[in-house]
Amino acid sequence: MMLRTCQVLCSQAGPSTGAWQALSFDGGAFNLKGTGELMRALLVLRLCAWPPLVTHGLALQAWSQRLLGSRLSGALLRASIYGQFVAGETSEEVRGCVQQLQTLGLRPLLAVPTEEEPDSAVKTGEAWYEGNLNAMLRCVDLSRGLLENPGPTGNILMQLKVTALTSTRLCKELTSWIRRPGASSELSSERLAEAMDSGRDLHVSCLSTEQNQHLQASLSRLQRVVQHAQAQRVRLLVDAEYTSLNPALSLLVAALAMRCNSPREGGPWVWNTYQAYLKDTYERLRQDAEAADKAGLAFGVKLVRGAYLDKERKAAQLQGTEAPTQPDYEATSRSYSRCLELMLTHVSQRGSMCHLMVASHNEESVYQATKRMWELGIPLDGPVCFGQLLGMSDHVSLALELEVSVPDGAWGILSPNMSPHPANTLPAGQAGYAVYKSIPYGTLEEVIPYLIRRAQENRSVLQGARRERELLSQELRRRLLGWGLRVPH
To answer: Are 395 and 471 in contact (CB under 8 A)?
Structure first.
């Protein structure tokens, strides 16, 4: 399925024509998924909601390999967790996964599952980061190759982990220096951008000779990825990480934005991620949006709730400092709502110069976004898009893309092994929002540790997927036990 051409917003806001129609997150769109897919999703989501499995995931994986052998253990993972959350290992497998999503109107957001954890063992030399650079460049090519005709606005998106290209130790050093009162202009985004362009050696006095060399190599890697992505018309969404790293990451993103997010480049090509669970996010987002506007730069934002809550609180406790996070989930939701309102207002005012991904599994946040888009006159397939993880919240993703209406007596019972086909379903009304699925890919050895870390960081999301599990159970009962509507004879 070809992606629709993004529409360019006018600067004037106002309600869209037609009546506002709220989305229905009742799982009706599950009609478009096969029974086997639904059974696996229900099993995996139930397993992921079991705290011991998430907490001891890596140890259980090692135990499984010793007990069952690598081959059988791998087969079980591929049939369950890997199969649910990962596109595959080869380019062909990734293409197959993306084609299935595209038949449902969903779009790919590829992610290389490589990162450096804080306080991990120091990498020897630059070889590890250079290898990751090559993987990122291949991901850009794969992202572009998945879509034969992406449209003139180039709305192909890809995730980028900066800590795959530069060390977390360097990011911590830069962050500690940035946070000092009257931080030196040595670390300005302008100076870093100039160093990227010129290729000349950059010397920062707070860093050692080795760290300066690593910073220079890191800037070169980042520039190469961004230049290649821009040439291939792929937009890069830079992931946020821990608060001990984020100021440094934001500095690097700002330097990249200065070079590639100008209006003449058709930007924004580099987007930053903002975590609503941090207390200072709203103010930082407001300042960054205003600074981009003042500088005449396009501005791209991925808005998330955040995933490092437990680790951030523990780190603050160990340091004897105040936790940087919101006190509870309700406060985080209020923060997300404020940030969302702020960004939608900027989109309505700046048009295609401001892009936003509403990266949320929360139904209330998605409802707020769609309603405000209508009130502000923002086109459904314009500079605002939505994102969820592959294998999760499909009832939200599909509701955004397809408004499925099943009149009384119009749906037949599917057999357990029968996958729905457009010929077997009623025509679905197009809700028409741009919806992306974050899609990691790679070998079991690469991806399983990554998935376990994501599960540990997203405990509240996984444990809170109760409604999705209930909808899956309801749809499976309807199919397997004959509950629900039948096609009249």
So the answer is: yes
